[in-house]
Amino acid sequence: MKKILKLAPSILSADFSVLKNEINSVANADYLHIDVMDGMFVENISLGIPVIKSIRKVTDLIFDVHLMIDEPRRYIKQFANAGADIITIHAEASDDLKGDLKMIKSFNKKAGVAIKPNTSLDAINDVLDLADMFLIMSVEPGFGGQKLIDFTLQKALSLSKIVCDKDIEMDGGINLENVESVLKSGVNVIVVGSAIFNCDDRNKKINRFREKFMEYENQA
Ligand code: DX5
Ligand code: ZN
């Protein structure tokens, strides 16, 4: 089955002093990727529930919320109420992955499960049917602007052969130069932080990514 390719700019690389404008500058994307960090699961703290609630008012983009927090179940309800559309939790951060994904779905949200670069696919074996989306981290979570770790592409490819009809997202170090190899690995949801927000004309940059999507689809 042919999956729809989606682009998800990550606001972690945006200028938070003008967040509304930054979000509007990527309005032609598919998702808005929102990284939530707790300073425990990862060595960084980003933004949280009040910010998501506020920015919900300024855009209709689908909110793809990536929770890099320990024991995510403590906050799933609040992120659902704040306006998340997709809530992704880390397999490494949950001791009841099935229960947590079911909780996300109970709020009528799409449930995603993420794994860090060195976490094997075995960690998500039990939720292959339950999860709506699988996020393969292509950098160590915590910071934007890192280099994509090549071996994670192989992991995505293996997963894509097992879960043919589900969304596979990749996050970290993706740019115009390597996006083709990411797509070839069976990924259909592309998160891009610095490669979009570090340039002035986001609209143009997003269109360049879409051209790459089209080239890939025409080859396939
Ligand atoms: C890293 C975050 C990413 C980050 C990606 O922990 O999950 O979403 O913003 O940024 P780039 O594309 O710059 O690697
Ligand atoms: Zn992310």
Present the secondary structure layout.
Layout: E1 6-9, H1 19-24, E2 31-37, H2 49-55, E3 62-68, H3 76-82, E4 86-90, H4 97-106, E5 110-115, E6 133-137, H5 151-162, E7 167-171, H6 179-184, E8 189-192, H7 194-197, H8 202-219
Parallel strand pairs: 1-8, 2-3, 3-4, 4-5, 5-6, 6-7, 7-8
The protein binds D-xylitol-5-phosphate and zinc ion.
The site of zinc ion has 6 residues, from strand 2.
Q: DSSP strand (E) fraction?
A: 15-25%
Distance between the termini: 12 Å
Strand segment tally? 8
- The CATH topology, please? TIM Barrel
- The CATH superfamily is identified as Aldolase class I
List each distinct ligand once. Answer: D-xylitol-5-phosphate, zinc ion
- Report the C-alpha radius of gyration, rounded: 16 Å
Q: Can you count the helices?
A: 8
User: What is the name of the CATH class?
Assistant: Alpha Beta
Mean pLDDT: 97
Q: Helix proportion of residues, in percent?
A: 25-40%
H-E string: EHEHEHEHEEHEHEHH
Principal-axes shape call: globular
Q: Looking across the biggest beta sheet, what order are the strands in?
A: 1-8-7-6-5-4-3-2
**Domain count:** 1
Structural class: alpha/beta
CATH architecture: Alpha-Beta Barrel
Low-confidence stretches: none
